[in-house]
Structures are given as C-alpha cells and as structure tokens.
C-alpha cells in the first residue's frame, strides 16, 4: 500500500523483479554477470535430437572447458490441457578445446538417450553457457 492506495503490479513485473532479486543475491555457483556476456551460445538450432550452434568468445583471453546447458523445452499442442508426462529435459555438454579471444567454435550435441517420438507436442531447444575457464596470462 502506498499513501493509502493499494498498488496493483502485473504478475509479469513481479516475476521479473523476483528473478532480478535472485540474480542480484548471487551465489558461488553462478557466473559473474559480466563474464556471462563474454562467452555466449548463438544461432542454436534443433534437427531431430541434435542441437547445434556457435559459441562466441568476446573476452580478451582464451577460454576452455566451456560447459553448455542444453534445454529441450516441451511445447504441448494443447497448452490449455497439457498432459501429465512432460518429456522436456536439460543436459550439459562441455566443448572440447579452446576458443581464442574474439574467436568462435561451432558445436553439435546429440543426447545419449534420444528424445521420445510423440505427436502431442514439439521440442524447442536452447543452449546457454553454464561455465568456462578463462586463461589469463601471468602479469609481466
């Protein structure tokens, strides 16, 4: 209540505020927000079970051990009456090799267990960088 008036805040705004507060609180398991923008997954596509894209390194240093979070989101054909067994899932994949400063590396991930073949919805894939190691040369 503000000045005797009750404020109505849309639910979406509350969700965004909650996410912002959670991110601001931080934890040891989260990447520094400045680091997240240095190494990103882009042009992510899904063909069958395979997720492909490109990881870009805009940092001033080489990176390695880039761990991607691959999410297979399940979109129900009838979102008003979804089923009870959502086959969506999240997998992690670590890129082999190093990405030089300013460089890119293509990736293709195929899950160990295939996605189920269903006709009550479709999968949508996304990839984001979960972690990486930045190789900083010693000061001279």
Task: Record keyword descriptors for this entry.
140 residues, mainly beta, Immunoglobulin-like, 4-stranded antiparallel β-sheet, 3-stranded antiparallel β-sheet, 2 helices, 7 strands, 44% strand
Give structural notes:
- The protein is mainly beta and 140 residues long.
- It has a single domain, classed as Sandwich (Immunoglobulin-like), CATH 2.60.40.
- Helix content is 14%, strand content 44%.
- The protein contains 2 helices and 7 strands; from the N terminus they run ααβββββββ.
- The strands form 2 sheets. Strands 3, 4, 5 and 7 form a 4-stranded antiparallel β-sheet that branches.
- The longest helix has 15 residues, at 11-25.
- Mean pLDDT is 81; it is low at 5-28.
Fold topology:
Elements lengths: L10 H15 L7 H4 L2 E9 L2 E8 L4 E15 L12 E6 L3 E2 L4 E6 L11 E15 L5
Helix segment tally = 2
**Overall mean pLDDT score?**
81
Q: What gap, in angstroms, lies between the N and C termini?
A: 58 Å
Question: How are helices and strands ordered from N to C?
Answer: HHEEEEEEE
How many separate domains make up the residues? 1
Write down the CATH class: Mainly Beta
In CATH terms, what is the fold-level topology?
A: Immunoglobulin-like
Number of strands: 7
Range of helix content: 10-25%
Anisotropy-based shape: elongated
The CATH architecture assignment turns out to be Sandwich
Biggest sheet statistics: 4 strands, antiparallel
Radius of gyration: 20 Å
Indicate the structural class. mainly beta
Which blocks of ≥5 consecutive residues have pLDDT under 50? 5-28
Percent strand equals 35-45%
């Amino acid at each position: 209540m503000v000045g005797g008036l009750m404020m109505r805040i849309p639910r979406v705004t509350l969700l965004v505020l909650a996410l912002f507060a959670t991110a601001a609180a931080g934890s040891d398991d989260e990447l520094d927000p400045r680091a997240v923008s240095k190494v990103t997954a882009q042009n992510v596509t899904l063909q069958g079970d395979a997720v492909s894209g490109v990881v870009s390194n805009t940092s001033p240093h080489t990176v390695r051990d880039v761990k991607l979070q691959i999410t297979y989101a399940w979109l129900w054909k009838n979102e008003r009456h979804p089923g009870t067994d959502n086959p969506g899932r999240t997998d992690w994949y670590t890129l082999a090799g190093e990405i030089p400063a300013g460089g890119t590396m293509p990736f293709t991930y195929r899950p160990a267990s295939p996605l189920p073949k269903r006709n009550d919805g479709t999968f949508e894939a996304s990839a984001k960088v979960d972690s990486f190691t930045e190789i900083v040369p010693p000061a001279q």
